[in-house]
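Q: What would this complex look like in 3D?
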Amino acid sequence: MQKVKNGPDSAALAVQPEPSKARKTWRRLRENHPFLVMVFPAVLAVFLFNYLPIYGVLIAFQDFMPGDPILGKYTNWIGFNNFTRFFTDVQFWPLMKNTFLLCIIGFVIGFPLPIIISLMLNAMKGKRMSKTLQTIFNGPHFISLVVLVGMLNLFFGRYGLVNNIAASLGAERVSYSLEASAFRPMYILSSNWQDFGWSAIIYIAALSNVDPGQHEAAILDGASRFQRVIHVDLPAIMPMISVMLIMSIGGLMGVGYEKALLMQTDGNLEVSELIATYVYKQGLTGVPDQGYATAIGLFNSVINVVLLIIANTTSKKFSENSLW
Amino acid sequence: MASLTLKDIKKVYPNTESSPKKKKKKQQAEEPGKEKANLQITDEGVVAVQQFSLDIADREFIVLVGPSGCGKSTTLRMIAGLEEISSGQLYIGDRLVNDVAPKDRDIAMVFQSYALYPHMTVYDNMAFSLKLKKMKKDEIDKKVREAAEILDITQYLDRKPKALSGGQRQRVAIGRAIVRSPQVLLMDEPLSNLDAKLRNQMRAEIIKLRQKINTTFIYVTHDQTEAMTLGDRIVIMKDGFIQQIGTPQEVFNHPINLFVAGFIGTPQMNFFNDCKLVEKDGKYTVEVLGSSVELSPAQQKALKAKGQRSCSIVLGVRPVHMTLDDGGFTGKIEVSEMMGSELHLHMTVNGSDVVAIIPTVGIDLEAHSIGKTVRFSFKPELMHIFDTATGMNLL
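A: Here is my prediction, written as structure tokens for the whole assembly.
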């Protein structure tokens, strides 16, 4: 069979030298330099504030005193002593239990709530009403933690609204802030109240991309409003739910210390002492033991990373969605 | 299968804006430059469809055709029950269905965007409506496989929509509709997302499908070729009004007005403005491009029956009805398009653009190239005469 030659002479092509790797990289950099310039501040910020501080975790393996250099001639390396100290600490299991329970209950209630709310708002006929409700639901997110805890004290204090109502009905007044049994419900419900609207935004955005034709097709197929939510809306936001689920599980044990500390009283200390509050107290109050506090924080972060990997691997195995 | 009757159907989208916005919109509507050409904004709202009356026979294939915004999709959606009917009556069979829920109308619809459920397999997509009806599993399976067989998609039943090509997706969308054996099958521009080749192929498939399933089809398109090839009757719409209802041949040969004449046929009909219909001693002639053309006996008779007087007219001649000969008109070729079996000549005649389609058999292509001058004529019996004032066909 005769070969048809349309292009330049193949021998001439063969003598063309292949550009070197460095040359190719340089050409790519030159072509994309406006984008690289644009992304540079973000990369710098992430490096400075997210990666550079990782250097500080070295103190978890040191007998560190505030003012000591992290790496120096007289650095006292103690290996995993800070970790073993924490594992054998009498506080270890109560801290783990408190943190785990608070996070798990918060997650079980808090994760589906924005999904349900977004599906409900999306299914509402009156779009104006839906938008108004969405705005109202977002409001609490902007209340500062201090104000929120102040509100909790006002409403649930001994002479607060709840007790006043209860007293008017003949019940005894209870100081909820001193009750250990009231800490978790108050913490979790107030957190969810504050953030369910805000967390729903991402799902509402995902729902806005659903092809209206699918709803119309489902209407013609005979699906009820609820069936449309189940068969059209929910599958449409499933990839987003998967990603959010992985991220939530990854941050499950990463509860902050601020709110727990603000709500902490002698009465509820047995349940309100979390890993985060313990780290704060060990590292920044009294005689600070920052090496020990860092070790506890690092341990907590390792748990989160392990959870994230497990969640991502599981999601990858059972669905088409994963973070990596 | 069922007949359909649409009686004086009207659709108005009421004004819902708060008063300052409404005022602004009204002001904008009053400015001629800002008004949307094909939307009628009245005090009650935006009128999308009005005075729509049509009887559709059992198993008939009706095509609603018209430019974007003419109200064809709105009409289809009113039939489907996806839009409320503002006024008028819609009967499917003998049943008034104005207030009947879409699922109870016994209709199915194929959407332009396919509207397949992306998380379901082809099988589940097709079986969904039957499952909602709580049909038995083996019955569902039988129906789905039958429909898949008809559409030749059996091998794709386990796939998800994203793993299918555009044409295959459209087949699934049709399958999902026919699996329910609906009385009426509605199709809303089902081929417009496909490329030209696939569109032609699917058009043929729809014609075949029609032979296989006994149902009434209502098909919406803006493509007049689809309308001409698929429809038993075509409903041509503009600005929410029906312009003409007729078989493809009727609307092609006897367009009721200038709009229909220009809309149906590719390339579109040539229009010669500033012509005159002259009635003298009971004889009608047309003065066009400085020549006088005597009308055919049939045309004479038709005009006489109407008692038509001399008036200013727009003369319409289809490109296929123009012949190159030693006739009385001269045109300069601006563009010559070789289409294989025919040549499309775009000419200027006295400042007007005129297109002629001529067969290429035995033709000297050099003599019909750009810049050449040709002489042409057209037969009087193939001319269309429109009143300049009303735009209506006088014949």
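A: To summarize the key features: Chain A has one domain: 91-318. The first helix of chain A runs from residue 10 to 14.
Q: Very helpful, thank you.
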